[in-house]
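== Sequence entry ==
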Amino acid sequence: MLVKGAVWKVGNDIDTDQIYPGKYLYETDPKKIGQFALAGLLPGFAQQIEDKDVILVAGHNFGCGSSREHAAIALREAGVKAVVAQSFGRIFFRNAINLGLPVVECGDLYAGAEDGDELLIDLRAGILKNITKGQAYPLGVLPPAVAEIMFGGGLIDYYRRKIADGEGKF
């Protein structure tokens, strides 16, 4: 799975309330949830990235805080193609995978990446390229079962395919 987009850089310790503020938790429509992506940190972010291919690049501990799935939904629905961080809050990381939002840890990218740099991520091969700067970074490869969930659009779509193929039952 290849993901391509321009860097939009944020800092360290970006929590789920900055990604999707609690005051919007009443919203249940994923498209409307996406309108409030990063509203606690960068008001208007979703509107600024409309029709753009954006890869969010973050420092340490991105997605720390609560277990709200809304944070990953908001980024996905706003159109963020992937999130690359030095490290993630574990619950956010798994929520993103379960919702089909590509997330990868790459500790070395953050220091040299700049807003607008063009990135290409090969999730299957485990390599990230900063095309703008001609640099490449190795990535950890997800376990096959976890990768299949993320590449397939998330956990619900994964199980729908399994059931359709006669491989799973509820």
In short: The beta strands are 2-9, 54-58, 80-85, 103-105, 118-122, 127-130, 135-138. Helices lie at 16-19, 30-34, 45-48, 70-78, 90-98, 109-112, 144-151, 155-164. The chain has eight helices and seven strands. The two ends are 29 Å apart (CA to CA).
